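Sample intake sheet
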Amino acid sequence: MPTKTFKANINSPAGIVVGDEVARIHGSKQNYLMCDALGTYLSGPMSFLSQTQNIRMAGLWTMNNAYNLMIPSTLGTPQAVLNVDPPIKTLENIMKGAAQMAALYGMLVAIG
């Protein structure tokens, strides 16, 4: 399988490797992002530069606010780690756009 490798210099551990069925971004031998037919892999320490409620998992779940997780989860005060948060706002924007497109199509049909 032919691949292309992009590096700042030949001795640099960091680089980008692109092939027919794989793409890898290396920071070092231990830190990389790889996408292939089997999935997406992240290796190494991670930082998310977002608030916890903005981290979405499987499209439906968001992380609970970190301040709420400071209260211990007990039988009397259970604390969920994930919240069900369907992307209603995204669907609302899609429907608004679809309504505008339908109105524009209606005007074009009426004119022509």
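Comment: Helices lie at 88-111. Residues 1-46 form one domain.
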